[in-house]
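call fold(seq) -> tokens
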Amino acid sequence: MPLKAVIFDFSGTIINDESVQASLTDPLLLAENLRPTPGDFLQCCAGRSDADGIRSLFEIRGRMLMPEALQTLVQRRSQAYCAALLQLPRLPIYPSVEDWIYRLRVAKIPMAIATGTSRMGVELVLRQAKWQDVFSVVVTGDEINRGKPDPDCYQQAIAQLQQVTGDSTLGPGDCLAIEDRYTGIAAAKAAGLSVAGVANSHPYQMMQRHANWAVDYLNQLNLDRLLQFFAGTEKEFIRREVSLNSLPSG
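ret:
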């Protein structure tokens, strides 16, 4: 079966925004008269949807949020995220992302985004990068019921890809997910996708243990060999046993 689509994670995979994301945690808590503690972001928010992260921040402090209150905080955080990005001299997009997008466009392979980040922030980045027409489908934290590691966002992305491509046979086995965190890898695998893990947030050796393939940088993924693998013509390209990092890029 051919490779029919590539689905990207957003935060940590397309954009190097962890420092921006982490900087939003303390102000959000202080505004609600809650005391921040070191490690809040990594413990509660990293690799999770905006809503799940905020919910966790409050739960560990003994406060439960009603849906309306949670939505208000998610919107406030999204606005702060956009404001913080706009203050930067340039968007911190990983340099290899543009190269990989170019390769996929040349190969006419549809691309999608499946993320727990709110739509406001994702759309800002896509506008600033002039990528509004790059991704056929964008599923964000605003549309999903459960964030990663739940497969909801990937399941929705595949359903929408079927619609926009007109290919009702497109399924998880025809798609490659690109992720940087364990939660995202787990979500994609639970949805039935193969996963390329980029070592942006975890060590390369650990990504090898979780993803089907691991690379240090996205542009080290070899598209030709991936296409051969999905088509079933690359007999020696065995998951977990061959690292794409050792293959020539192209």
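Strands lie at 5-8, 111-114, 135-139, 175-179, 194-198, 213-215.
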